Amino acid sequence: MPKPVNRNISTTFVKGIQVLKAFDDDNTHLTQADLAVRTGLDRASVRRLALTLVELGYVRQAGRHFVLTPQILTLAGSFFQGNGVGVEIQPLLNRYSERIGGPASLALRDGARAVYVCQSAARAQPVTFGFTVGSRISLTHSAIGRMILAWEKTGWSENFLQETEIVQHTAASLTDRGAILKAVTEARALGYALVREEFEPGVTGLAVPIGHAGGHGAVVGTSMPTAELDDNARREDALQGLRELAREMTHTRMFRQS
């Protein structure tokens, strides 16, 4: 059965947001036809919506293509400032990045993906995926994603894994849904997720949750060369650092007011 229409919302506004969300890391320049395909809307609607966004300054035209403008960042500015990202969270990530000797990131669940909210800016990071604030990654094959799945409300992850598309990123990526669910269950029991080379060869991710299960849908994590995290002492030190970071995060404005 089709989902009932909620008469309390503006469907036009919803469609406008669909157009904005059609742009991502791999699709930065989109034609009217591209937008129609990616949103599922007809071309006439897409044209009106895109031109409205151009008029408002969030999108510009470059020949036949539409491109997001820097003004789109102002929509996130209030979130960052209101949650103390610059004054509380960024300094925490930088400090603990030095403590654990690797990058430190904060991510939240955004629908069927994890979205990076903030990353450490420490020097000489051993691993980088090229992600920035706002980048979205799969929940299935990263430590951050698995930990988010593990810390979700009972039943959500099981339903999600039944329906989501499983993409193999490396030769080590789990492709069996049952095997991924088992890994998620183990992460829930352990209170941390360790994912070896399933997202990028030679790289292992480690992540821990913030707060209680079923709560914020937030995790902090790091990625390092696999040889480093295969060393028991190195792994335990990094894990302890992430757990201390997660505890401090619960006292920041973002999580105190959640």
Structure, described:
- With 258 residues, this protein is an alpha+beta fold.
- The chain folds into 2 domains: 11-68, Winged helix-like DNA-binding domain superfamily/Winged helix DNA-binding domain (Arc Repressor Mutant, subunit A, Orthogonal Bundle), CATH 1.10.10; 75-256, GAF domain (Beta-Lactamase).
- The chain has helices at residues 11-21, 32-39, 43-56, 73-82, 85-100, 143-150, 156-163, 177-190, 226-229, 232-249, 253-256, and strands at residues 29-31, 59-62, 65-68, 105-110, 113-119, 136-138, 193-196, 203-209, 218-225.
- 45% of the residues lie in helices and 18% in strands.
- A hairpin with an 8-residue loop joins strand 8 and strand 9.
- The longest helix is centred in the last third of the chain and has 18 residues, at 232-249.
- It is globular.
Write the layout of secondary structure elements.
Layout: H1 11-21, E1 29-31, H2 32-39, H3 43-56, E2 59-62, E3 65-68, H4 73-82, H5 85-100, E4 105-110, E5 113-119, E6 136-138, H6 143-150, H7 156-163, H8 177-190, E7 193-196, E8 203-209, E9 218-225, H9 226-229, H10 232-249, H11 253-256
Antiparallel strand pairs: 1-3, 2-3, 4-5, 4-9, 5-6, 7-8, 8-9
Helix pairs in contact: 1-3, 2-3, 5-10, 6-8, 7-8
In short:
The chain is of the alpha+beta class and 258 residues long. It contains 11 helices and 9 strands. It is globular and about 60 Å long.
